[in-house]
Amino acid sequence: MTAHQPKPLIDSFGRQISYLRISVTDRCDFRCTYCMAEEMTFLPRKQVLSLEEIERVARIFVGLGVRKIRVTGGEPLVRHSVEHLIANLGQLNGLEELALTTNGSQLTRLADSLRAGGVTSMNISLDTLEPDAFRRITRIGELSKVIAGIDAAVAAGFPRLRINAVVLRGHNEDQILPLTEFALERGIDIAFIEEMPLGQVNAAGKNLELVTSDEVLETVARAHTLETADTQQHSGPARYHRVSGTATRVGLISPHSNNFCSSCNRLRITAEGRLLLCLGNEDSISLRDLMRAGLSDEVVTEAIRDALTYKPERHVFDRPDEPQILRFMNASGG
Ligand code: SAM
Ligand code: SF4
C-alpha cells in the first residue's frame, strides 16, 4: 500500500468490493434459449464501451481495491482485439486474478494468447455432450468446436478451468454425470447452475424448469464420493465439493435455493458501461457517460462511491411482489 492508496469500496452492509465483472460485448455467436431470443437486436457499436474505456474503468476499480476481474459478455471472445485488452488488464498493478467466462467457440484460436496475456482462470460453458441437444440449447452452436476449445484450454495450462452447466428440466438433467466425467477426465472443475429468471422467458410467464442444486448434488453423490472443498479467495457464489481422490471440484450455484447475497463482493459493468450494483436489481449509473463527458478519474471515482450506497442487501428473483428482471443475461454478463 502506498500513502496515497484510496479508501477501499465498502457498501452500506459492510461488504468490501474486491471483484468486478465486465461485459465487453452484448454480441454472441450462440443464442442459448435461457439467455437470448432467437432474433436479437444488438447495441449499436458506439454505445458499447471502447477497449480503452474498459481499460480505464478496470484501472480505476483496481485502484479502489478490486483484486479480481472477470471478463464476460455476451461472448467476450467475439469482440475484435479482445486478446489485446486481456493482455493490458493482465498488466494492472494490484490485480491478483484475471478470469474469463466464455462459450468456448473461439478457444482453439485464442487459448494460448489468453494464457500468455495473464488469464488465470476460465469458465467455459457446456450444458450437454449430446450434439443435438447442444444445438437445441444454443440454437446455432457446434459442440465439436467447443470440446476442441476446452481441450486447447487444458493444453494451454490455465491454473484453473471450470465447466459451467446450466441444468434445465427436461433438456439436460441426464447430462449431470456425463459432464462430471468429462471434467474428471481433464482434471478440471465443473459447476452446475440453477437457471435464473432473466429476459423475455420470464416476461412471457413461462414456468421455471428448475432443477435444484440439491438434486444435482444427490445425482453426483450417487456415483462419486464427495468431500466439502475449500472456497478460494474472491470466489463467487459456488459451493464446492471435491470428488474424492481427484483434482476435480463440483460446484453448485444456487440463486434460488441458497441466497448468497450476504457475502456478495462484486459489481458488474455492462457492455454499455453501466455500473450494476446487483444482478437482480436495475439500479445503475453510466460510467460511459461520465467518461465521455470528459470527467477525471477522481470524479468518476466519487460517482462510483456514491452509487455503491445503493447496492441492495439482497437480490429479489424469488419475491413475487418485486418487479421481475427483464434485462437479457448477455447484456449484463452472467
Ligand atoms: N458467453 C459466455 C458463456 O456462455 O459462458 C459468457 C456470458 S454467459 C451470459 C455467462 C454464464 O451465464 C454462462 O455460464 C451461462 O450459461 C450463464 N447463463 C446465461 N443465462 C442464464 C440463466 N438464465 N440462468 C443461469 N445461468 C445463465
Ligand atoms: Fe451467448 Fe453465453 Fe448467452 Fe449462450 S449464455 S447466448 S453463449 S452469452
SSE string: EHEHEHEHHEHEHHEEEEEEHHH
Which strand order does the major sheet show?
Answer: 7-8-9-6-5-4-3-2-1-10-11-12
Alpha plus pi helix count: 11
Helical content, roughly? Answer: 25-40%
Helix/strand-derived category reads: alpha/beta
Major sheet details: 12 strands, mixed
Low-confidence stretches: 199-205, 318-328
Strand content: 15-25%
Termini Cα gap: 32 Å
Task: Describe this protein with a few key phrases.
single chain; 334 residues; alpha/beta; twelve-stranded mixed β-sheet; 11 helices; globular; binds S-adenosylmethionine; binds iron/sulfur cluster
SSE blueprint and pairings:
Elements: E1 19-23, H1 51-63, E2 68-72, H2 82-89, E3 97-102, H3 107-116, E4 121-125, H4 131-138, H5 143-156, E5 160-167, H6 176-186, E6 189-194, H7 200-203, H8 213-223, E7 226-228, E8 239-243, E9 249-253, E10 266-269, E11 274-276, E12 284-286, H9 287-292, H10 297-308, H11 329-332
Parallel strand pairs: 1-2, 1-10, 2-3, 3-4, 4-5, 5-6, 6-9
Antiparallel strand pairs: 7-8, 8-9, 10-11, 11-12
The structure holds S-adenosylmethionine and iron/sulfur cluster.
Question: How would you characterize this protein structure?
Answer:
By secondary structure, this protein is an alpha/beta fold. The chain has helices spanning 51-63, 82-89, 107-116, 131-138, 143-156, 176-186, 200-203, 213-223, 287-292, 297-308, 329-332; strands spanning 19-23, 68-72, 97-102, 121-125, 160-167, 189-194, 226-228, 239-243, 249-253, 266-269, 274-276, 284-286. It has a 12-stranded mixed beta sheet with strand order 7-8-9-6-5-4-3-2-1-10-11-12. The two termini are 32 Å apart. The relative contact order is 0.16. The structure holds S-adenosylmethionine and iron/sulfur cluster. Residues 28, 34-35, 72-73, 75, 101-103, 125, 164, 166, 193, 195-196, 198, 329-330, 334 line the site of S-adenosylmethionine (SAM).
